[in-house]
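Handout, section 4.2: multi-component inputs.
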Amino acid sequence: MELPEVEVMRRDLERDVVGKKIKDVEVKGSKNAMRVIRRHKTRKDFAAGLAGHKVMKTERRGKYVLLSLDGGEVWVVHFGMSGRFTRANGRIALAPHTHVIVTFQQGGDLRFVDPRSFGEMFVASTDELGKVKELQHIAIDPLDQVFTWPTFQYLLAQRATKMKQLMMDQKFISGLGNIYSDEVLFAAGIRYDRMSDSLSSQEVRRLYRAIQEILQDAIKARGTTLEDEAYLDLFGKPGEYQNELKVYGREGLPCRRCRTPIRTVKVQQRTSYFCPQCQS
DNA sequence: GTTTAACCCTGCACGC
DNA sequence: TGCGTGCAGGGTTAAA
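Output:
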């Protein structure tokens, strides 16, 4: 799940979960359920941080969602590749790989389902939060006010890395993953292996604009759900942005702009899609 | 500093 | 049909 999907999930939670009081927390007995709450030594320790508290607000930092609770604790969630929240109630059977079930005083529950268990969640006080390494490493958020194009240009020039991996580096810019980094580079006409310190001002501006437009459009379309329906929103609905993808998943198909077949290359063990004609 | 590979986990498509 | 392989929206770590 990348920034748009995380943001859609956050907005759903903001609308549906804020104001609700947590009555009960259940962490399943599987090894993977323990993996999901890996920062906590015991189920009890995790559950104690949530039970009895009301969800006050939500925010997003990169690919993390933070739910603030009354009493000052923060519930931090990262979805990994296959994690998601789903709203349900006691009458609905548990989906496979449900690891955590949070029941609300007002009725209904919130379930964390994650087949691959790369996701994680923990509860921390506001003080502790400042010491969490992963959160400290979160870099500039592309939808934040402070993400301006001169700043972006400066940051790019500071590094000497290939663009694809830099766009996916959460310590450089937080929120893009394999899909959206390909889409953004295509939109800007920049190839995966261009060096970050070689971009012209014009290219930086194009890339900057592409990042903002594509992420905003993807949020409007409620995210990307590939055919295996791995990503679903809080209410189990797929997104629509897969219909807008220009290069991702289109190996061998004609480029939508110039008809040249889309090619792939391995970057950091991930498949990267690009148009050999439109990107240079 | 940057790059590479292995690893964490399950499910699915594909080729033999 | 069954089985092995490789791949999937994430990230970390160690070593080169």
